[in-house]
């Protein structure tokens, strides 16, 4: 599964990079690249997607998944959520309720869906060829991986990335809601062994 994991991740990353290039980088991309916190968030999002894909592929081979390997996803993901929470609290303490003016972002959610569909379908097709024993977990981590790559791409397209409340509502929450559908997909699409 290691070779398939690497192949899928590189292919997905290339797809997202092309999608970002085609759709356009954020005009204020230099703000993200010059901010250590925003750059750290982007790295954590990428590592979360990478970890989720690793777990999904390991779950597709009987006997390969170890519970402690789930840290590959959990550590960067919890760190990303923690960093977002910290930035949200600081923003609220600094600006008060004005932070909620950044709650305009449905284009980000649409972009997330567009960037995530192809990597997710590719991953599910690859996983369906394997001997998936834990269908629910494999589906969940499969969607976390596919759409995690999309959230990573979105980091370079979103002009409101410096506004943490926007990122929570229009990047993180849709990402988590979509991931829950992975449970249903896992039950429906993976064969019961």
Describe the structure in your own words:
- The protein has 193 residues and is mainly α.
- Helix content is 76%, strand content 0%.
- The chain has seven helices and no strands.
- It has helices spanning 2-23, 29-34, 36-59, 71-95, 106-128, 135-154, 164-189.
- The mean pLDDT is 84.
Q: Give the biggest beta sheet.
A: none
Number of strands: 0
Order of helices and strands: HHHHHHH
Radius of gyration, CA atoms, in whole angstroms: 17 Å
- The dominant shape is globular
Number of helices: 7
Distance between the termini: 19 Å
Strand content: under 5%
Mean pLDDT equals 84
Q: What are the segments in which pLDDT stays under 50 over at least 5 consecutive residues? A: none
Question: Which labels suit this protein?
Answer:
single chain, 193 residues, 76% helix, mainly alpha, 7 helices
Helix-strand blueprint:
Blueprint: H1 2-23, H2 29-34, H3 36-59, H4 71-95, H5 106-128, H6 135-154, H7 164-189
Summarize the structure.
The chain has 193 residues and is mostly helical. It has helices at 2-23, 29-34, 36-59, 71-95, 106-128, 135-154, 164-189. 42% of the residues are buried.
């Amino acid at each position: 599964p290691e070779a398939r994991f690497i192949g899928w991740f590189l292919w997905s990353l290339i797809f997202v990079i092309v999608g970002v290039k085609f759709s356009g980088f954020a005009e204020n991309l230099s703000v993200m690249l010059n901010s250590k916190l925003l750059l750290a968030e982007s790295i954590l999002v990428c590592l979360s997607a990478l970890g989720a894909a690793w777990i999904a592929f390991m779950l597709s081979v009987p006997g390969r998944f170890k519970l402690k390997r789930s840290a590959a996803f959990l550590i960067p993901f919890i760190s990303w959520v923690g960093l977002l929470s910290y930035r949200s609290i600081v923003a609220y303490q600094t600006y008060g309720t004005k932070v909620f003016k950044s709650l305009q972002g449905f284009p980000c959610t649409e972009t997330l869906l567009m960037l995530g569909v192809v990597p997710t379908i590719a991953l599910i097709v690859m996983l369906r060829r394997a001997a998936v024993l834990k269908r629910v977990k494999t589906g969940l981590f499969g969607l976390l991986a596919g759409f995690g790559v999309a959230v990573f791409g979105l980091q370079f397209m979103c002009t409101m990335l410096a506004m943490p409340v926007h990122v929570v509502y229009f990047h993180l929450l849709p990402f988590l809601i979509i991931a829950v559908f992975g449970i249903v997909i896992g039950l429906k699409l993976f064969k019961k062994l």
